[in-house]
């Protein structure tokens, strides 16, 4: 079988019956006409019902497999390769940014000759894909790892935090390219692990890959780099396309951001606060008082305890799930209760067993917006009596990450108070009724 | 100790040292003055730092416990009792509504003489609390049960559905008062159990109890009754205060509604669609094509399988939670994955074990808005190969309820296709990018 990246299912079957590879010049006879051209690779998310040719006139054509009568090879093509264009002249007086890769679509680029998507990760390649960056910052890049973000683990957070610590003294800002699925969890993790860092650390992703006309990869990356090198602030942020259509990018606090849509470009939202800044046309508009830049020295606490679970309550919830965690040596449980922070009375015994085993049990709300208030109803007060720790307006996901961090970095006697103390903006005592940016 | 409803902590301690009860005339000497009056009960959500008297001049005064020097009883008072005012004249030509109670603040009323909150649940009492209802409908009431909504279980849904079936033939609409914590789950449950019912069934709650000036109880109840008796539609809905300040109440489809704030009056939102109607000043504005009213006959399927779990995925998630469910005889698992419907590769074995044991495993997204698309990335395709059932744009909470319903009412061979078939608006193939009402 030839080299047929991206093809699968019906289209792969059709092509693999012939000895053709991507790049070959082939002739396809189909219902409605004949097509001669160079076989293009397919992107991973493409369907399996078409094969795609680049015709001599430069146009790409997709041919439905079910219409194809025959495929034949005319000549072998050159394998698609990517030669980076000449490096633009970089101004040595520009601020420095370190761009760290973890995987995800933001670091991909398209080869316009073949249509192939390549991971673009050298500084040279990034400049070639997003020429605006050459005027904005001197870039150095490092691929810390390359995984789908759903496979990120707390030990990946540690590795990433340590990479940031290494870079922090020598650059004006750090940008981290990250898959969007778990970007908000990683942002929360770094907000705690890198608490006190003197420069901005900006996570950035893309909801659409760079080869789609609607891609937000370039504008998100330019804005993240702009914020990382030119904003007067420090701390951990997420920069993603804002809700408006005017090309502005919202900057969210790393502990207060959530992916609230599976596919929209403006999927990321600040919860219980507004975005702390916007970047548009490389201009930064700060919307909140944020920690200033400061010296390079700080004490990073990069460890995370993995034996912590986030458990969502629902009608019919069986406390056996809590029991299973206790039995398996868990050290912390974050509950996602209903409303102001409730679970059914059926859970009380299991919770008591957990807390009396010195397992931290904390409460957040599945409402997502708002805050738990456990003194209002008797259910809340009873849970407080069982030792459940109320976590104010903290996002459930942030609470999970914070508990992992607190358990790994503080003694038992300090853990409860650290959980409830605001460290990196995760608890906001004011504006209790803010729901979302207007 | 006397009868001291609502008092707790410091205020209860201060009062219980004397032999006083609510309703007694007492004399309180405190820093700053002496107060003589009738001891009022406290509401459940009140603080524990004040005792409250109704003075002779009719004003209520709260006295801080820490300022109190002495408390003495002057005379025993009449216990607070509530005598409903005379029943308003009800027009026999008005449409009929059955109002079912389950617990929750909507059915409470305040006794203005004593300040006590009473559950108001006879028709007479409802008319007296909300006089507008007398011009709107002939009311009959029934308390099906009286529990905090966090203690609702699938068997409560069955009982409630059966109560609706009994009423349906004799009334123009049904209104159900429900605590807000799990109202959306119950709405989804009834949407399936009562599929095909010929009249509107409207769930209604209140984010603030009736004794607070900002209470939404009356306007929500009037609007729910209006929609139940006067709208031309059938099916299950939730009527709650809309986001605007103009007193309009949004009507949400029972399968597409979520409590998205712990405390705001407009906490309930339609997800992936817009509200299907608004009620303002007892006028109904329909915004969607909904099933028309029809005959009283329909086949209710009111059972729910309790051995179904909703499991939220997160970085560091340990598949032991899935294993525990399999071991404990679970019949279905709804995953709340990341993004388009992903979990880490670490979960594959546990999922495979579940599906090969004929346990239904389905996928929803923790993004809440949007829809799972499991053919886009390899992770999604691998999960499909393991037998995971993608549930389009269904809310995770609705998916849980639907799986409980499908497992209890259909044979194994039909269950997967029933899950993926739109029954009551829970799957919306259109408007994939709607996030929320404008």
How would you characterize the overall build of this protein?
Chain A is of the alpha/beta class and 438 residues long. The first copy, chain A, folds into three domains: 9-75, SH3 type barrels, CATH 2.30.30; 96-286, L-asparaginase, N-terminal domain (Rossmann fold, 3-Layer(aba) Sandwich), CATH 3.40.50; 308-420, Rossmann fold (3-Layer(aba) Sandwich). The first copy, chain A, has ten helices and 21 strands. The first copy, chain A, has helices at residues 9-16, 123-129, 154-168, 183-193, 217-230, 320-327, 348-356, 378-385, 396-409, 412-420; strands spanning 25-30, 33-39, 50-55, 60-64, 68-75, 96-101, 108-110, 117-119, 138-143, 173-177, 200-204, 235-241, 249-253, 257-259, 268-270, 277-280, 283-286, 308-312, 332-337, 360-365, 389-390. The longest helix of chain A has 15 residues, at 154-168. Residues 110-117 and 431-438 of chain A have low confidence and may be disordered. Chains A and B meet through helix 3, strand 18, helix 6 and helix 9 of A and helix 3, strand 18, helix 6 and helix 9 of B.
Shape of chain A: globular
Record field, number of beta strands of chain A = 21
Q: Number of DSSP helices of chain A?
A: 10
Oligomer: homodimer
CATH architecture of the largest domain in chain A: 3-Layer(aba) Sandwich
Helix content of chain A: 10-25%
CATH topology of the largest domain in chain A: Rossmann fold
Write the layout of secondary structure elements.
The structure is a homodimer of 438-residue chains.
Chain A: H1 9-16, E1 25-30, E2 33-39, E3 50-55, E4 60-64, E5 68-75, E6 96-101, E7 108-110, E8 117-119, H2 123-129, E9 138-143, H3 154-168, E10 173-177, H4 183-193, E11 200-204, H5 217-230, E12 235-241, E13 249-253, E14 257-259, E15 268-270, E16 277-280, E17 283-286, E18 308-312, H6 320-327, E19 332-337, H7 348-356, E20 360-365, H8 378-385, E21 389-390, H9 396-409, H10 412-420
Parallel strand pairs in A: 6-9, 6-10, 10-11, 11-12, 18-19, 19-20, 20-21
Antiparallel strand pairs in A: 1-2, 1-5, 2-3, 3-4, 7-8, 12-13, 13-16, 14-15, 16-17
